[in-house]
Amino acid sequence: MLVDKDEELPVFHKGKEVKAVEAVVKDGFAVTEVELKHCKELANNKDWLDKLKNGFYDTKGKTSHLFIKIENPNETIFAIKQFLRQNPFKLIRSNWHEPVDDPQIAIYNQHGTEKAKSNTFGMGRGRFHSGLDIFSIEGSKVYACLDAEVFETQEWVRNTGDSGYGHSITLKVKVPQEFKNRRRNYEKAFKTDLDKKASFDKDSNIFLLRYNHLEDILVKKGEKVKAGDVIGKTGISGIIKYGTHDPHLHFNIYSTAKKQKFLVNPAYYVYWKEIGDLTIEDKKIQKDRKDEGYKTNNNPKISVKDPKRVKIR
Ligand SMILES: [Zn+2]
């Protein structure tokens, strides 16, 4: 915490007043876009600067809560950016956009059993699960998390018994440092949610984001996308012949360094609702969908044709 709790003043993020803005701190700090409605004593307040600096040293490389003092109604976001540039801190903006709106853990498994731990990264299924299953009603928007290039798209052709990833899109992150800056502290949701294999080599400079089980693909290989661009629609493609009670985005992160491939736990990057964070309404939506029973997705679409896409059967 950078200032005392009573010193909190209104900060707006995406039009909503927030108490704190999460920022990933790394050789300076990242701050999500905030509008400063009021602003005071930034540049000349030694005390504030010291607190800021100490906050940095305490939280270097980790996620911290950045509280911004604001009083003067005429300041804008540019003022604080300018202030940060002129001081011993480097401002690195985090352009991250969550892969789906309001990401939350999928509570149920495909057979309708309540088993959230099987949907985190790790051994919750008794075998390794390589990604995070984020609940998503079919047809919801899928977003590019960062500026990226479309590395690959996979077309799934329905086949009996297939339990693969279905239609998928893989993005290659444009600025690796932006990805690294996004990492936050993460308390494991379950014991089976692994740390092992959840990270990457310090020299890693290739990061791939993979979106699976899609219903529609809206980008093609080689295309440049911006954080927040809609690249596809969620679905249940690739999920076994009986279908599923559990529509979700299976989200993977890969990193490659020195020709080695690493699997990264997406929980460090997606700020998702764990089981304890879900509201009664969130749970109801998931339960209602579960109660609708098995659904299948026989003919997922590809709205943007890509002659180079990889076909899987
Ligand atoms: Zn999964």
Q: How would you describe this protein?
A:
The protein has two domains: 5-86, no CATH class; 116-312, Glucose Permease (Domain IIA) (Distorted Sandwich). The protein is α+β, with helices and mostly antiparallel strands and 313 residues long. The protein is globular. Residues 1-12, 19-79 and 81-93 have low confidence and may be disordered. Helices cover 14% and strands 23% of the residues. The structure holds zinc ion. Zinc ion binds at residues 129, 131, 133, 250. Zinc ion (ZN) binds at residues 129, 131, 133, 250.
Provide the descriptors you would attach to this structure in a database record.
4 helices; 14% helix; 15 strands; binds zinc ion; disordered N terminus; three-stranded antiparallel sheet; 2 domains; 313 residues; alpha+beta; eight-stranded mixed sheet; Glucose Permease (Domain IIA)
Rg calculated over all Cα atoms: 21 Å
Terminus-to-terminus distance: 51 Å
Structural class per helix/strand content?
A: alpha+beta
How many strand elements? 15
**Number of helical stretches of at least 4 residues:** 4
Report the oligomer.
Answer: single chain
